[in-house]
Hints:
Blueprint: H1 2-22, H2 24-28, E1 30-37, E2 40-48, H3 49-97, H4 111-117
Antiparallel strand pairs: 1-2
Amino acid sequence: MKYLRVAALILLFFFSMLFFVQNHELLSTTVRLTLDIFGLELQSKEIPYYLIVLLAFAAGGFISLVYLLAEKIRLSREVRRCKDKIRALEEEVNSLRNMPLEDDSFHVESSEKQEERL
């Protein structure tokens, strides 16, 4: 599994480098981002496209990391809760197994009476 992860990472790196090399001229052009909210206009400095692509990729990776970390924490709590429940049920089963049979309504027929019935 480790080898597959490393191979996938190498392929991702290779294709991203190939993308940047083949589109170097287009990605080197600059753009100015603007944001107009309630009459307040904000503008950025001129930023090359490749920086926007890299920042978007990094932001996506960070958001995915936070989501997966939260999911791992949730699932570990669920596993802990299930293990506690299993432990309690196993204790209950063991206590029921060790309980003596002292009920008077439980009668064992002798082998002679069983043979007579057949």
